[in-house]
Write a structure and sequence with these properties.
- This protein is of the alpha/beta class.
- It has 11 helices and 15 strands.
- The strands form 2 sheets. It has a 9-stranded mixed β-sheet with strand order 14-13-12-11-7-10-9-8-15.
- Helix 3 runs parallel beside helix 4 and helix 4 packs antiparallel against helix 10.
- The longest helix is centred in the last third of the chain and has 20 residues.
- It is globular and about 70 Å long.
- It binds nicotinamide-adenine-dinucleotide.
- Nicotinamide-adenine-dinucleotide binds next to helix 1.
């Protein structure tokens, strides 16, 4: 028998644009949280059925909140998160954790100093297919992972860049908006990356921010891989098209984002198709391949993320994506950007160490 449910957490949202409005809907659909206030200079007083403030400070002073979701432009993330943590509320901070690795470490230190509760919004980690994929890898379903290939490409509407200035500025390109999700998930599935190479292009949109990037990765496990991301190219391939996570991105049945190849089989994610040779013939390329779908439990990443956040806010769970963890993903994106600028292979651990101690 389950006991009485604890009262819904009193939540505020900072930034109610594209992503913030999704958080509004998620809170409205949850019995564990209640939307009590929003803070956004562009929000009208009545739009969300709760008090609206011009900025986070005004909201924190006027309201008694348990938790805040931060979905403002990425360049504001660290200062806003520290402001909320210092006010004593738990924080769900949208990705990327910051637009600069060194700056993200300021947040990591603040979380430690304040013994604070903070979850970073790499929502894909909460998708049931991801837990299932990790479990399959741990069980050795495809043997040792040899390599991975991944793709995220979708053509964003031109207004995304013309009407929202911060999308044309540092942090608004495909690397920190989209690739950061994929690199976070690849770290989650395959472990830390040792080395990265990259080529970046802004050829398709001709903006200051990059629209397309191609990277090569060497994981500490010894596996290698490649990933291509573009916000200018039409494609059915990528996490957002392959799941029902975001209704604004139409679903492509049986789409995939990552293909993992192992010594005994192959796995595509998130549709969780596994492929293996027929062992009664021979365990190699002369044998027919069979395909089996691993079961994907029902549910989406965002509701699961919100549920987990309420546990983090109540202090009954440690964050699945901590500030420190997310800052490592950010460091990997920056290491890839450095690799693209320099044309050289970047050692990711060395990059992090040099950023910590820039002499
Ligand atoms: N998890 C995901 O899949 C996902 C998807 C989209 C965006 N995001 C992240 O969410 C964040 C917001 O992205 P978006 O696409 O919603 O952008 P957006 O431009 O649509 O919305 C940002 C909102 O923040 C508001 N804002 C600006 N300055 C502010 C301030 N000082 N205080 C409070 N609000 C302020 C703007 O008025 C706007 O309404 C970004 O960090 C982005 O990376 C995450």
């Amino acid at each position: 028998m389950t006991g009485p449910q604890p009262p819904a957490l009193r939540m505020g949202i900072v930034g109610v644009g594209f992503m913030g409005r999704q958080h509004v809907e998620l809170i409205e659909a949850s019995s564990r949280a209640e939307l009590c206030a929003v803070a956004d200079p562009a929000a009208t007083d009545t739009a969300f059925g709760c008090p609206a403030y011009r900025d986070a400070g005004d909201m924190l002073r006027a309201e008694s909140l348990d938790a805040v979701i931060i979905a403002n432009p990425s360049g504001l993330h660290v200062d806003t998160a520290i402001q909320c943590l210092e006010a004593g509320v738990a924080v769900l901070l949208e990705k990327p954790v910051a637009v600069d690795y060194a700056e993200s470490l300021r947040l990591v230190q603040a979380v430690a100093r304040l013994d604070a509760r903070l979850l970073v919004g790499h929502h894909r980690r909460h998708h049931p297919a991801v837990a299932e994929a990790r479990s399959a890898l741990e069980r050795g379903v495809i043997g040792d992972v040899v390599a991975v290939s991944g793709l995220w490409s979708a053509r964003k509407e031109d207004a995304y860049f013309t009407e929202i200035p911060w999308h044309r500025e540092r942090g608004g390109g495909v690397m920190l908006i989209n690739l950061v999700h994929d690199l976070d998930l690849l770290r989650h599935l395959l472990g830390e990356v040792a080395e990265v190479q990259a080529m970046v292009s802004s050829h398709a949109r001709n903006l200051d921010v990059e629209d397309t990037v191609s990277i090569n990765l060497r994981f500490e496990s010894g596996a290698i891989g490649g990933f291509l991301a573009s916000d200018a190219g039409v494609s059915p391939w990528g996490w957002d098209q392959s799941t029902n996570d975001t209704p604004a991105f139409p679903f492509v049945p049986d789409g995939t984002a990552y293909q993992l190849v192992g010594t005994r089989g192959a796995l595509s994610v998130p549709n969780l198709a596994t492929y293996a040779y027929d062992p009664s013939v021979s365990p190699d390329w002369h044998s027919p391949l069979s395909r089996t779908y691993l079961p994907v439990p029902a549910g989406g990443a965002f509701p699961a993320q919100l549920e987990h956040f309420t546990d983090v806010a109540r202090g009954t769970a440690q964050p699945l994506v901590s500030a420190e963890d997310a800052s490592r993903t950010l460091a990997l994106v920056e290491a890839a950007a450095l690799a693209a600028r320099s044309g050289e292979t970047v050692d990711v651990a060395k990059f992090r160490a040099e950023e910590l101690d820039p002499r």
